[in-house]
Write a structure and sequence with these properties.
Number of strands: 3
Number of helices: 5
Order of helices and strands: EEEHHHHH
Largest sheet: 3 strands, antiparallel
Number of domains: 2
Structural class: alpha+beta
Distance between the termini: 45 Å
Shape: elongated
């Protein structure tokens, strides 16, 4: 059953309701907190699943110009952030820490000196 998000216009409560497609628009929905019928549907983000092949093709197109990244930590951080999003997988918090530092202009060598545990876990930075 699809989940629909609503907001109560009387008490501002956000709540979800499970409705079948047949029930949507026909079944009366009430606020789960105050019981009011004065509600509105909240539109949420839609996530589109991509096949691994289409993600790899998009990354190849986006990252065709790797030249000079080793000399530009900010560009490297930006590229790594986008690559992380394109992978569609949960990445460890260390990934975000390294990317944040790169985006601030810190070199990989400086990051490795300041956070040696990162290179110990992976064998390299």
């Amino acid at each position: 059953m699809p989940t629909y998000d609503f907001i109560c216009n009387d008490c501002n409560q956000h709540f979800d309701v499970f409705l079948t497609f047949a029930e949507y628009g026909k079944k009366t929905v009430k606020c789960t907190l105050c019981g009011s019928k004065n509600i509105r549907r909240r539109m949420t983000k839609v996530r589109i699943a991509k096949s691994e092949e289409s993600r790899m093709e998009a990354m190849a197109d986006d990252f065709s110009g790797f030249d000079g990244l080793e000399d530009d930590p900010r560009a490297m951080g930006k590229m790594m952030r986008k690559l992380g999003r394109e992978m569609g997988e949960e990445l460890p918090p260390e990934f975000d820490e390294v990317v944040d530092r790169l985006e601030k202009g810190q070199s990989p060598e400086e990051i490795e000196k300041e956070v040696p545990s990162l290179s110990e876990e992976t064998g390299e930075l």
